[in-house]
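Reading a protein record of the kind used here takes only a little practice. Think of the row as the fold of the chain written in a discrete alphabet. A record is reproduced here so that you can trace the correspondence yourselves:
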Amino acid sequence: MPTNTERVMATLRRSPGLNDDELAREAGVDPRELRLICRYLELLNWLRRTPGPDGGIANTLIDP
């Protein structure tokens, strides 16, 4: 069974650029936990969080 972090990363591989709300819904992760996961991945330099076109935060995995 994948962890929530793995589900978030798999979702972003399929659909890069999702905002936090979209990503939480698609990955099936609680929005509060999702924000913690995204901040953690950003600290590891695995994720880029930028202002999105809808005013939210767009999330994109960084290629190694």
Remarks:
- Residues 4-52 form a domain with the Arc Repressor Mutant, subunit A fold (CATH 1.10.10.10).
